[in-house]
Amino acid sequence: MNTLSKIIDHKRIETQEREALYPIRLLERSNYFNSIPVSLKKYVLREDKSGIIAEIKKRSPSMGTINKYVNIEKTSIGYMQAGASALSVLTDKHFFGGTSEDLITARKFNFCPILRKDFIINEYQIIESKSIGADAILLIAAVLSKQEIISLTDVSHALGMEVLLELHDADELDKMYHKVDVIGVNNRDLVTMKIDVNQSVLMSEFLPKEMVRVSESGIESVEAIIHLKKYGYKGFLIGSTFMKQPQPHLACKEFIKQLNTETLKRN
Predict the structure, then answer these.
(1) Which residues of 207-244 are buried (b: 16+ CB within 10 A; e: fewer)?
(2) For the residues 235-257, what does the mean pLDDT come to?
(3) Which of 76, 100, 105, 132 is most buried per CB count within 10 Å?
(4) Is 186 annotated in the active site?
(5) pLDDT of residue 1
(6) Catalytic residue among 11, 100, 110, 166
(7) Could you tell me the pTM of the whole model?
(8) Nearest CA to 86 among 114, 105, 110, 47?
């Protein structure tokens, strides 16, 4: 069994347990449940921002421990002060070391859009995402059917949240749903765990021109972003590049500073 299959099998069990402990009626009483979400799509497109969706990720199946003791408050605030367009927070505990509390902490100290990064497979998780303060959720085409993508997107929109639909290759294009807000291309193959940033380039010709595009995984240089912009990408989800540094927010600040300098040179 590959890692992705293990994650999804564990997620089904975990979600059942969480629903028993925290029923929907309880989630709906959250302070954040009736709040108005901030648009991820609009922030990614803002000209005064970098397009970078800066991620908080403590560990991963492929890299092991990345930054176990990261300060969520300090890092999330620092990311936004550095000029990031949005935050992405890993909330999967078993495989990535994250928690819902990490996102709640980021929400408490930031008004920017926050993407809940997890393996969402059912409606309960959508409601849970709203209750912890997420503005947008990630749906992964590799683990969902077209009908599930439609259903989960519609539920998210009914709660005011946006959806980033993640694809990896052309075989998943038939799962596209025109109502998703942002389309992401994961440069990591979730089965083999190999990364190739050129995957975003290869996929660019198949993506709807009107859709806001985000490239995910493996982005380690300013040059990579400048190159991807030529193929219509507006957003760039970066986690490990920042998180493997002792102070991720300072790494993000320096990265965005270099990006801005290089962009000015070329314009």
Answers:
(1) beeebbbbbbbbbeebebbebbeebebbbbbbbbbbbe
(2) 97
(3) 76
(4) yes
(5) 67
(6) 166
(7) 0.96
(8) 114
User: 9: Cβ–Cβ under 8 A, 6 or more apart, which residues?
Assistant: 1
pLDDT at 264: 87
Map out the domains of the chain with their CATH numbers: 3-266 (3.20.20.70)
pLDDT digits (tens, 9 = 90+) for 168-204: 999 999 999 999 999 999 999 888 888 999 999 999 9
- Which DSSP state fits 99? -
- The verdict on whether 265 is a catalytic residue reads no
Torsions phi, psi of 173, nearest 5? -65, -25
Task: Tell me which of 117, 130, 175, 253 is the catalytic residue.
Answer: 117
57 as an active site residue: the answer is: yes
H or E element at residue 55: strand 52-56
Dist CA 79 CA 74 (whole Å): 9
Q: Is 14 a catalytic residue?
A: no
Query: Is pLDDT at 256 greater than 70 in this prediction?
Result: yes
Helix (H) or strand (E) segment spanning residue 128? helix 123-131
